[in-house]
Amino acid sequence: MEVQRLGRVAYADGLDLQKRLESEVIEQRGPDYLLLLEHPHTFTIGRRSKTEGVLATAEMLRKLGVEVFETNRGGKVTYHGLGQIVGYPIISLSPDREDVHKYVRDIEEVLIRTMADFGIEAFRIEGLTGVHTTEGKVAAIGVHIKRWVTTHGFALNVNTDLSYYNWIIACEGEPVTSMSRLLDREIGMAEVEDKIEKNFRDVFGYVAGARRQSVPPAVAGGFFGDDPPATAGGTDSGRHLSSVQQEVVS
């Protein structure tokens, strides 16, 4: 698996990169990938959501400097922004991991272990997706799977300005928190990325520099956010919304 630490990346550019690498993995032209990056202020709308999940008007979005995108991941509305680590695993789940629920639980395990590395007690909540603490949700997860190759992934609040969540109805409306709020100090992003990479390799069984498994010609599609997976195809990219009133393709 190849880990790419990309720094700050515009959301649209991140979508384009995911699509290109997804094709490489499906066609077995490249290794599996884990992309770790940070997005500018962005609200993303999953397949279970409607634009009503974004509370800010178009004028307020401009003032906040927030772009809005609809995506083909599972889940509802979420926030990406500065001080948040976004992880996009682009990996083959074939042949031994063709289980969407297990994949999402494994991502949760990666993040729970990462929180433990910093002395934060984190856990799952039955019926919900993501990683939670006694003070709120610290990481959101929403994935898309095509031919058992994954895109999208997780968003971990490290030093995130949580005020942006006031402008959306995030997931199931649960409270959110960040590592910096929980620890009452700023945390180095590179240090967190180090722990994420190590825990991801451990949980998914990767050896540094090696690919875990190849992709057979099986066909499958799925989405996962705060809902059970559905088998469906769907578009492979996100559409930039110039106004939150525009229709979201379901």
What are the key terms here?
alpha+beta, 250 residues, BirA Bifunctional Protein, domain 2, disordered C terminus, 7-stranded mixed beta sheet
Task: Draw up the topology in text.
Layout: E1 2-8, H1 11-26, E2 33-38, E3 42-45, H2 58-64, E4 67-70, E5 77-80, E6 84-90, H3 100-117, E7 131-133, E8 136-146, E9 149-157, H4 179-183, H5 189-204, E10 221-224, E11 239-241
Parallel strand pairs: 1-2, 3-4
Antiparallel strand pairs: 2-6, 3-5, 4-11, 6-9, 7-8, 8-9, 8-10
Molecular structure report:
25% of the residues lie in helices and 25% in strands. Strand 1 (2-8), helix 1 and strand 2 (33-38) form a beta-alpha-beta unit. Residues 213-224 and 226-250 have low confidence and may be disordered. Helix 3 (100-117) crosses helix 5 (189-204). The strands form two sheets. Strands 1, 2, 6, 7, 8, 9 and 10 form a seven-stranded mixed sheet that branches. Strands 5-3-4-11 form a four-stranded mixed sheet, with no helix packed on it. The chain is built from five helices and eleven strands; from the N terminus they run E-H-E-E-H-E-E-E-H-E-E-E-H-H-E-E. It has helices at residues 11-26, 58-64, 100-117, 179-183, 189-204; strands spanning 2-8, 33-38, 42-45, 67-70, 77-80, 84-90, 131-133, 136-146, 149-157, 221-224, 239-241. By secondary structure, the chain is of the alpha+beta class. 46% of the residues are buried.
